Amino acid sequence: MFRSTTLGVLGCGLAVGVAGVAGAEPTAGSLSIEQIATIPDMGRMAVNPATGEIAFGRTGPGAGSAQFLRVLGTDGSLHTVGDQAIRDPDAVAWDVDGLFSPAGSLLVGSNRGIFAIRPDNSIMTVMEAGSDLVNPEDLNLAADGGLYWADYGLSRVQRLSIHGSVSTVLTTADPVVRVDVDEFGSLASVDVMGGVIQPGAIAGTPNFSELVFGDGSDLWGDDRYALDTGSGSVVRLFDDGSIETVVSGLFDGVDLSQPHAMDANIAFLPTGEMLIGVPVTGELYSVVPAPGALAIAAMGGVLAVRRRR
After folding, report:
1. Which of 222, 132, 130, 135 is nearest to 176 (CA)?
2. Is residue 261 one of the residues assigned to a domain?
3. CA–centroid distance for 279 within its chain
């Protein structure tokens, strides 16, 4: 089993509690990958940086369907949150510091607006849909105190300030579906065609369905990580434009004719693990250094390969 770690008084390791999941086995190379849960109808994913809880948006039968959000606890239990369902709840983000809602609330992006599920399970409206917000596909609460979202309907990345003003930070030719902001205010975004990669050049022609910054740790650094739909791999993007494969084989056996079959979610636990969610299968993986691994800077080639099950 991989490690169980404590942050403050809350356990953040996910080594225990996911029924039916086998213990981790080392893989060749410097990383080990382990399936830790299966989340049906997985939408976007957000990690609570204070507790290690993982929230999931929902995909469903249509934009008009109302659904409940789920949270995977540090004990491995999956439970619904909110005292009512929310329509089209694609995107999620944790408001740990209470900038737009009571501290510890879960922000939810919907085609009806942005809502907050408070710690007491009640729901409040943060912003209603209108000319500045049509259909958020991804939410990011940045270090600068702004709430950013990738608005599919507007083909823009929008920012809401704590004072309630909305500004456009990026306009795209095709609908924008992913956005991340690092601690320095740099923006990373992906449009529905897999392009519009900000900032910096990328070798070749990008075709990504996910793009996030590393967590700033010694292991993952500040580089960007993406799901390359051409190879079906999670890759690391360096500032010089080069690319390194981190995880491959995530889509083995998947029917790739399904819409958005090669979408993925990438996030980081406060204990240092990379999380990879595969919505088409619902599989959630944890990527950790293999026993005795060297620093990530010494890695080369394929770093972790999904074990066939």
Report:
1. 135
2. yes
3. 11
Supply 222's token pair. Answer: 């500040």
CA angle 156, 161, 163 (to 5 degrees): 140
Task: List the beta strands (DSSP E) in 129-279.
Answer: 136-141, 147-151, 156-160, 166-171, 176-181, 187-191, 208-213, 224-228, 233-237, 243-248, 265-268, 274-278
* Structural domain count, the chain: 1
| SS3 assignment, position 237 | strand
Taking the C-alpha atoms of residue 10 and residue 73, their distance in angstroms, rounded to an integer, is 10
**Cα–Cα dist 159/37, whole Å:** 32
What global pTM score does this model have?
0.85
As a whole number of angstroms, the distance between CA 113 and CA 120 comes to 20
Residues contacting 109, CB < 8 A, separation 6+: 57, 89, 90, 91, 92, 93, 136, 137, 138, 139, 149
Residue 61 forms part of a structural domain = no
What residues make up the domain containing 240? 1-39+200-309
Residue 92 resides in a domain = no
Residue pLDDT tens, the chain, 309 long: 222 222 222 233 343 333 333 333 323 247 888 999 999 999 999 999 999 999 999 986 666 789 999 999 999 999 999 999 999 999 999 999 999 999 999 999 999 999 999 999 999 999 999 999 999 999 999 999 999 999 999 999 999 999 999 999 999 999 999 999 999 899 999 999 898 877 676 767 789 999 999 999 999 999 999 999 988 899 999 888 888 889 988 888 888 887 778 999 999 999 999 999 999 999 999 998 766 554 443 444 455 654 333
- The reply to whether 108 falls in a domain is no
User: Are 245 and 237 in contact, with CB atoms under 8 Å apart?
Assistant: no
